[in-house]
Each structure stands twice: as structure tokens, then as C-alpha cells.
Amino acid sequence: MAKAIYAYFQKQKGSGVDQSASSMDDLKFEEAAPIIKKTWAELMKDRNSVGAKIYDLILTKEITMSRLFMNTNVEQQSDMFMVMMDKVVGFLDEPQTLDSNLVQLGELHVQKYGVKTQHFKHFRAAFLKAIKKYLPWTDRREAAWQWFWSRIMNQMSTATQANHYPQINQYDGRELTQEEMIRFAASIHSTFDTALTSDPKGLAAGFYKNLLAEQPDIAQLFENKHTTFETQSARFIVMLHHAIKLLDDTNTFTEKLESLSADHVAYGVQVPMLHSFGTVLIDSVKTLNVQYYNEQEEKKKKRKKKKKSKKDAEQKNEDDDEYDDIEMIEIAPWTEHDDHAWKWFWKVVVGVFSSGMSKHIQKMQQERSANVDTDFSAVN
Fold first, then answer.
1. How far is CA 64 from the centre of its chain?
2. Is the dihedral of CA 55, 59, 64, 67 positive or negative?
3. Cβ 347 vs Cβ 272: under 8 Å
4. Is the entire prediction scored with pTM above 0.85?
5. How many CA atoms lie within 13 A of 154 on its CB side?
6. Given 29, 147, 187, 357, which is the most exposed site by the fewest CB atoms within 10 A?
7. Pairwise CA distance, residues 87 & 106, whole Å
8. Is the pLDDT confidence value at 151 over 80?
9. Which residue in 327, 233, 345 sits closest to 286, CA to CA?
10. Which three-class secondary structure state does DSSP give residue 269?
11. What is the mean pLDDT of residues 24-50?
């Protein structure tokens, strides 16, 4: 099954269906590869320092990544990374096998290190920020490395998303293929990560404000619960983040998600409320993604405008400082595919939660009935 999934993604790259691997400022392989190989050769001249800087950023700035290296020697790990990255850059010498080589490498990282989809994103952010400390930076180099990391992530992360939900494959009146479910899962990861990164407090606060406007009765859930809407909104986002991370756990997703449903019964949540939760959630995530993308494009326009200015050309030595404001991860515009992905995901959540909540309620009723029978027998 895994080989079939990988072959599908390789075919999509070749046919141009997935444009993310080559969409960074319309850069082509032939243009990006020489830039990447040249800059990487410069970095390898100081490989120990560069590797150490990358891992320093990972451990101090990307806290979620630090758990992967708790039981390892960071110095040795950084050296291993530089060797691996040198191998990856070498893949550019054989374009026809680039994707298949990256897929195999991704599978190795999943099996040996337990790497998840979000880890690739954090690694890219740390990597790009680190190498800018060692190289003069330009828009062209930015576009080339963004292109390369998009290619790396698209191929290596397929291994973290294989075999999703073999029993939950119904959507929009038809049966989804394995490949469609994988692409949906990738979309959920990417768009939620964008919304959470761009404005985590805004996501939580906006969600609950709109939720109460959509269904005021939900406010009753929090009366006399010694909590506030702000606290509850933050808890919901944490729970959702956890549920989305479970997308990478192919064997236990429904089991773990179902376990969360028992807590929601205790909160007084009812199945019909879940639909309102989903409607507002999807709208909130979409709004932040669209907003973030528009801001990103506006920044790109301003940078291009400045570049044309003779004044900026005379201040070339000051250009490096501007790149601290460049977004580490460029995002794609929101599409109809993202709409469908979120509708599918929430359908899965509602289905699992509904089943889990019903089982929990039934169990509680059986326990109460058993207690009543016990009390009745004691009286007789």
C-alpha cells in the first residue's frame, strides 16, 4: 500500500497536478538546482558551525522538536544532519530519481525516528533562518531554497501520512481513495498550522466569539464550571491541535479520538452542538489562512518594489537586515480542496465523537442501573 501511495505522489509531481513543488516565484528545477548546490557548497566549508546553529535554533525556538533529541548527542546529531543534507542536495544531480529518493528517506525517518509531518515544517524554519547567518542573502536564493524545501517536505512527509483511516473513507456520497485521504490530511496539517502560527490567541478568541453568536445555548456549558470563555477557547484549540496530530498515528487515531469524547460528555456537550463547532472552526481557520496569505503577498510586492529602487540598490549592504522579516514558510492560497479537506476531517471527528459519546452515555446508564439493582437487593 505504501509503495502505491508513494508512486501516486511521484506521478502527481510529474504530471503537474501538484504545483507546490515548483510554485515559488515560478522557479524551475533548472534555475533552482545550481543556486542550491552553490550555496550549499559554501555552507559545507563551515559544516560544524552551521550544523550547530541549526540545532541550536531547533532546541531553543522549536520546542516541539526538542523531544526528538532528548536521548541523543546533539553534536553528533547535527553532524549527521549535515551529512544527510549533503546527500539530499546530491539528489539534485539525478532529477529523474529525486522524488523517489526523498520518499525513501522520509520512510526511514518515520520508522527510525518517529518523525511527524509538523517536524518537517519546524526543521525548514530553523534551517532557513540558520543559513542566512552564513551567506549573503537575495530574493533568488530565498526562492530557490523555499522551492527545494517544499519539494523535500512534499515527498518525505508522505510517509507520515500513509494508511490513514482505512475504515473512514466515505465523503460527499462516494468512497475516497487512499490517496485522496492522504491529501486531505496534508491539507489539514498545513492550514491549521498556518492559522495557529499566525495568530493563536486570535484563532481561539475568534472561534468562541463566533460560536456563541452561532449557537448561544452553548454558553450554558460553562455556567458554574469555574472557567472563562478565554480559558475554554484555549482548551478547545489545544484539544483540536492534539486531534490533528493524531492524523499521523495511522493505527490508533479513532481509538484516541474516541477517548476524548468521554470528557465532552462530562462537559455537557451534545452531538448536535458538534456541527456548530465545525462550521465556526472551518470558517475561523479559513479566515486566518486567507488573511495570512494576503499579508504574505503584500510583503512580497513591497520587497519587489523596493528592489527596483535605486536607493535600495545603493544600500545593498543593508539588505540582509530586511530578511529577518521574511516569512520562513510561504503558504499557498486557500482552495476548494482545503474546504473539502476540512469538511471531511470534521465529518470524521463528528462520527467518532458521536459514537464515543453514545457508548459513554450507555455505559453510565448501565452503571446507574446496576447500582439501583444492588440497592434494591440489599433492601430485600
1. 13
2. positive
3. no
4. no
5. 23
6. 29
7. 13
8. yes
9. 345
10. coil
11. 87
